[in-house]
Structure formats: C-alpha cells, structure tokens
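can u do me a favor
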C-alpha cells in the first residue's frame, strides 16, 4: 500500500542539474506586439513559482475544508454585524432579528435571559444624550429624563445599573416581599403577539427584603452611580398581617430607595385589591405614612401608591378623598397596574389566560385613569403614568393627561433597548414643538 503523501509537500527537482544562467528568467511583464502587457510567470506551474503543492486529491477532504472555512467566515461576519448592530442600537436589527430570536423561547425564559444579559452589562451604554428639555424635577429628585422602567421587569434588583446605562431616567424594581417566595406555578407569562400585549400571573415571586436590600446598598456605595431607584413593595401571599409587610418594607428600604411604592393593585395575589377600598385604604395609609415619617434622618423617601386601571368611578373618588387627607397624604400615584378586563378586541392566543394584561390594550384605559385622578386631586398629587407606551406620542398623551413621569414595560419586552432612545427622541421633539411645558 502506498502511503498517503502529506497534504502540504515540498517538490524537489531531481532531474539533471541545469545551469541557472542558461535558463531564461521570467520577466515581471513583457510587451506584446499589440502593445498589451503579458505576464509569463502566470502560465508557469504553481510548484515552479512557490515550491509548494497542496494535495487535495481527497475530494471529501477538500469539500469539508471549504464548508468549514465558509462557516467560519460566515459566522464571524454575522457575529461582527450583530455586535455592531447591538452597539449602534439598530432598531431594525432588534425588531427583525434579535427580538424574534428571543421570542422563540417561552416568555419567562426570555425574560430571565434579558435580566441575565442586563445583569452582566452586556447591553452597550446608550449613545443618546438626554436634552435639557427632558430633565424633570419631582419630589426634589432630578430625573435626567422622565422615561423609567416599571416594576415587574427587574423584580430582584439585579440589573439596575445596566438599565440606567441604556437610557432609563429611573428604575423601579420589585415587587419585593419581606420573605422569599416562589410566586405562582408555571407557566405564568403569556405573549399576545398580535396585540402587542402580555398576560402575567407571576404572583410576587421575590428573593425577599434582605437579598434585594444588599444589592441596592452595594450599588449605592459604588463611586459614580447616581441613578434614581424606586422600590415597589408587596406582601407575602401567606401573610397574616399585610399592613406589617408594608411597614417592614418601608423600614428596610427607607435609607436606600429614592422613592417607595405601595403595590395594592396586582391582580395575582388573592385579596390584594381589596386594600383599594376606602376604609381599608384609609387604615393602611395612616399606618404607612407614620412609618415613613418615623424613619431616621432628615430625608424621607417619597411614598407612592400604585392603583389598578379597573376602578369604578366611585372607587376613584374614594381613593382621591383618602389620599388628600393629612393623615393619609401620599406623595404620588403610579397609574396603572395591569388590567383583568378583556373588553377590548384581542386577536392572539392565550387571551383567556388568567392574570394581568399589559401592553397596547391598556394604553387608553391607563391614560383615561390618569386624567380622572389628576382632576379628582386637582393636580396636587404627582402621577407616574404606566400602560401601553410604545411611542413618544403615547408618553406625551400621558403627560398631557397629568403625568409627571412615565414608565415602560411591555414595549421594552417586545422591542428591547432601542425603544427607550426612540421614545425619548420623539418626546423631545414634541416638547420642542411646544406641545407641553
């Protein structure tokens, strides 16, 4: 059997020696009769030119080599283009490639992956520079822009710094419960793609006060971090004393939170929304306002209340009456949480799943409630507008209805970081045109 030759072998000329001086040397180029140039050395055998022969007599080896090379080059090119698109916040790339790939995963896995990517700072810092017209001052806090991320995205406070870096003016984490709890059984999150909506029934899955507090404490101690952090407080599902759960949250996070939110409007914790009734709310807020006022130090975090969009007209009047009382006077409203109503036309699967609906179907419902509560409180209570914000126009309409700040959630889940920049740019243009002061 003849041994296979090396794929890369040196060929030596073992014939009789030739006097080099007798061998015509190729010139770099020669003039043809017609005046054109010829390159004689191109017609010489390759081995005579470089002395090396590549043996690809094995066609399968050659094919494998070519395929491997093509895959390497292609994957490298795709990786480079993807990295550049992410770095440049290319919205078409996110909408056409990256986000559809994320949506191949089930919604909760996709959510967890987004948190992990944010946690390790893999999203690049936004290149957009917030303009002076977007700066907002509320509760003696200076917001670089009025667009925040709503509670529910970063429940455990893992991605706060990255979320600030990609352009959010403030980050609200949670809901956080005193003791760790797993939340409701899976599956508990459902996409309604055709409706640009999400239904969730997470049920306050939380790592608990201590874990989340330590994360915020560490972040606040980092040199150079100046981002605004809100902490959304919830109660444990098996709590015997819900009011005490909120008191514990105020005491725990009072020295690290820039503002606190009392969440009594999630539809996924049994009995929670009953605290929006007038008598229960009055009793709750009297206790919580005292707890906040008794915190040590001169600076007390603003206390906000998050309400549901499904309130009747009487419920709205009752809430306004309570929060305007001195003993129950809070510093702001977050309007609104998710809705349990399915009155609007929905075209996607999973529309009958139980849980809170967020996204496009909530846009006008939340804006109407903002306008109502602004009117009922005579504009004396600052409002954070949430619900179905997918454009600068959506944000502007909530501000026009009475909101000082706005928050995103579902639009961020569908479109990723570029939507933050787009909404701010569009909102800035509306402000510059004089639509709002």
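np, heres the sequence
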């Amino acid at each position: 059997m003849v041994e296979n030759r090396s794929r890369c072998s040196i060929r030596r000329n073992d014939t009789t020696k030739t006097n080099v001086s007798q061998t015509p040397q190729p010139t770099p180029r020669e003039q043809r009769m017609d005046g054109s140039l010829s390159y004689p050395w191109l017609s010489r055998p390759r081995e005579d030119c470089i002395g090396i022969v590549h043996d690809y007599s094995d066609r399968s080896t050659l094919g494998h080599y070519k395929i491997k090379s093509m895959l390497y080059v292609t994957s490298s090119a795709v990786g480079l283009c993807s990295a550049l698109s992410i770095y440049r916040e290319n919205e078409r790339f996110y909408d056409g490639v990256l986000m559809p790939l994320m949506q191949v995963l089930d919604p909760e896995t996709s959510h967890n992956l987004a948190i992990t990517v944010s946690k390790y700072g893999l999203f690049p810092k936004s290149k957009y520079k917030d303009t002076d017209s977007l700066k907002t001052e509320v509760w003696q806090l200076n917001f670089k822009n009025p667009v925040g991320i709503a509670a529910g995205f970063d429940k455990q406070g893992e991605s706060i710094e990255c979320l600030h870096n990609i352009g959010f003016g403030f980050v609200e984490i949670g809901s956080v419960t005193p003791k760790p709890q797993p939340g409701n059984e899976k599956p508990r999150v459902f996409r309604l793609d055709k409706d640009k909506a999400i239904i969730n029934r997470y049920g306050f899955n939380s790592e608990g006060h201590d874990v989340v507090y330590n994360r915020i404490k560490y972040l606040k101690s980092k040199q150079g971090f100046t981002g605004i952090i809100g902490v959304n407080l919830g109660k444990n599902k098996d709590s015997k004393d819900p009011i005490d759960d909120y008191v514990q949250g105020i005491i725990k996070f009072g020295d690290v939170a820039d503002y606190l939110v009392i969440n009594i409007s999630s539809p996924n914790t049994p009995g929670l929304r009953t605290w929006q009734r007038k008598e229960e709310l009055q009793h709750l807020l009297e206790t919580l306002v005292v707890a906040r006022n008794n915190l040590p130090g001169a600076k007390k975090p603003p206390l906000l209340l998050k309400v549901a969009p499904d309130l009747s007209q009487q419920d709205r009047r009752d809430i306004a009456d309570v929060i305007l009382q001195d003993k129950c006077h809070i510093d702001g409203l977050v309007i609104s949480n998710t809705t349990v109503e399915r009155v609007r036309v929905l075209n996607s699967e999973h529309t009958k799943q139980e849980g809170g609906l967020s996204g496009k179907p909530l846009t006008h419902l939340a804006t109407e409630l903002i306008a109502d509560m602004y009117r009922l409180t005579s504009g004396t209570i600052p409002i954070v507008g949430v619900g179905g914000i997918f454009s600068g126009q959506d944000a502007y309409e909530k501000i026009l209805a009475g909101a000082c700040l706005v928050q995103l959630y579902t639009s961020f889940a569908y479109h990723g970081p570029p939507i933050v920049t787009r909404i701010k740019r569009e909102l800035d243009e509306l402000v510059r045109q004089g639509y709002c002061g």
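The chain has one domain: 127-432. hope that helps!!
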